[in-house]
Each structure stands twice: as C-alpha cells, then as structure tokens.
Amino acid sequence: MIDRPSLKTRSLAATAAALGLLCLGLAGPAFTEEAQQQPVAAEGEGAAQPAAEASAEGGGIKAYPKPRQLGELTSEEEIKRFCTNIADAAKDRRYLLQKQELEKLQGDINARIAILEKRKAEYEDWLKRRNDFLAQTEANLIGVYKTMKADAAAPQLQELRPEIAASIIMKLPARQSGLILSEMDPRKAAMVAAVMTSAADPNTSKDPS
How far apart are CA 26 and CA 18, in angstroms? Predict the structure, then answer.
C-alpha cells in the first residue's frame, strides 16, 4: 500500500513551485529589457564618437586625420617612383637633343665659313689681277706721256678728272710736268696743282679725292 504524501509535504512542494514561477516571471522582463538596451547603448556610442570629435575640435585638441587607405598610399608611391625613374631619362634625352641641335648649328656655321673663305680667295685673286692690270696700264700710260710734247699732252690731260691728271703729271719728270701745266687751261691747271699739293702734304689724306 503506497503512503500518501502528508499535508505538510504537499504544502512545501506547492510553495517551491510558486517560487520557481515567480523567479521565471521576474527574469523574463529583465532579460528582455537588457536585450533592448544593448542596441541603444551601441547607437549611443556611435553618436558619441562624432560628438567627441566635435568637442575635441572646439576645445583646441588636435584631431588626427583619418589614415589613408592602403590602395591610395600604394598608388601615390608608385606615381612618385615612376616620376623619379623617368626624370633622369628625360633629362638625358633633353641633353641629347640639345647636343644634336648644337652639332647641327656648328655644321651649318662651318659650311658657311668654308663658303666665305672660298669667296674671299676668289676676291683676293680678282683684286690682285686688277691691281696688276692697273699698275701695268699706268706704267704704259706714263711711258706714253713721257714721249709726248707738252703742247700735245696738255689738251688731253685737262680733259681728264683733276685727280687722274694730277696722278699722271706727278709721275712725269719735273721739267716735263711744268711744261704741261703751262700749256693747260689756267683754271684746270690750278685745280690739278691743288690736288698735287694736297697729295704731297703729309697732313692730308693720301686719297687725292
């Protein structure tokens, strides 16, 4: 025969059950409230960060910039490295172009100098032949007037320019020169004599004109 629980035992069991239900009821709302407060706290921390940064800026506290991303840093470093690498090559290329340009200019100058030297030689040769011809012509002309009489030479010389007539008469013998001047027109003779005097004066130009 099974003994029935006593009244006291049933009363203790009922009391324990009531206390368990009471604990569950109190724990449920507390757990729910804690779960609801956690996102709020997280949001509060997120909102507090800009506020802290703003207060730091307002209070004179130095705010460090946000670190650059690794991709941005790498790209900037690559650009600097690329510019550094091509700087020397660009400088060498520029110097090479300048050298080529100077060599080209030097070649043009040398070619022009060669042309000028050739023309100078041609002119000097022509001038020498001309002077030789004039000297020979003058010598022949002086020889002709030396053999002429004064009355025959005077009319021809007075028709020439005074400078030319003076240069011829000065190369003739003194006696013959005087006779020719005496046979010339007095006005022309005076002009020729003036040229001869100026040519003999060391203080005047050697050019009779």
Answer: 12
pLDDT tens digits, the chain, 209 residues: what are they? Answer: 444 555 555 655 666 555 555 444 544 444 444 445 444 444 444 444 444 444 444 444 555 455 555 455 467 777 777 777 777 777 888 888 999 999 999 999 999 999 999 999 999 999 999 999 888 888 888 888 888 999 999 999 989 899 988 989 988 998 998 999 999 999 999 999 898 888 776 666 555 44
Burial 35-70, CB ≥16 within 10 A → b, else e: eeeeeeeeeeeeeeeeeeeeeeeeeeeeeeeeeeee
Question: What is the reported pTM?
Answer: 0.41
Give the CA angle between residues 161, 167, 172 to the nearest 5°.
125
A 10 A CB-CB count for 170 gives 16
Cα torsion 111, 117, 122, 125 to 10°: value is: -160
Question: How do the domains of the chain map onto residue ranges?
Answer: 80-147, 149-209
